[in-house]
Specification:
This protein is mainly alpha-helical and about 100 residues long. It has six helices and two strands; from the N terminus they run βαααααβα.
Length: about 100
Amino acid sequence: MTTSIKPLFPADGYSLKKYLLKKWIYANRLTQPYVAWKMHLSTYEFKRRLREREKFNREEITALVRLMDAEDAFEVIYFPTMKIRRRVWHEVFGKYKNKEELNE
C-alpha cells in the first residue's frame, strides 16, 4: 500500500517576512548583501524579491536555513495557512522534540 505524502516545499516556493528577516540580519551583525551572497543571489535581486514579496525557491530557502539555523528560519518563512505552518513544524521539529522528551 502506498501513501501519498504532500511535499513540505511547494513547487512555487515560499515568501519571507521582510521585517523579521531584517531584524535577524542586523541582530546577528550581518548585512543584506552577505545574506544575498549566501543565498546565491545578487544584492539587487534579493532586495527586490523582499520588497515585491516574491517567492524564493528550494535552493535559496535551504541556503537561508543553513545560514540562520532551522528554528530562526522557520520564523521568517511565510506560510500561507496555519495548517501548513503546523505541518511543516511537526515534520521538521516535532519528531526531534518527541525524541527529546522521551529521553528525559
